[in-house]
Design goal:
Length: 117
Amino acid sequence: MKFLVDAQLPIRLARFLQTIGYDTIHTKDLPQQNSTSDTIINDISIEQKRIVITKDSDFVDSFMTIKKPYKLLLITTGNIKNSELEKLFNNNLLLIVDFFQDHDYVELSRDAIIIHQ
């Protein structure tokens, strides 16, 4: 499974996912870094079959209207410490990965994982 972590999430999250074996890039790894447009992020996601991890509701809009990005993990935790976000991923990642086998849009909050149809 491959991920693309969007700009408003910490690069630390991308590195955490890499260390546990997931092919993950952060927008800072891209040529335009955190200035990379949503259109380019969507294109990379489609071309490389990467799940976009984001807090940006614009990706929800594009996913619902034009089915871009490839798959979407929306983070709805509000402000959260990086260490708490990492712990949240550590505790829920296997379940999230399992959900992405059959679903294209998953939401992660502080206390729930929501599967959107």
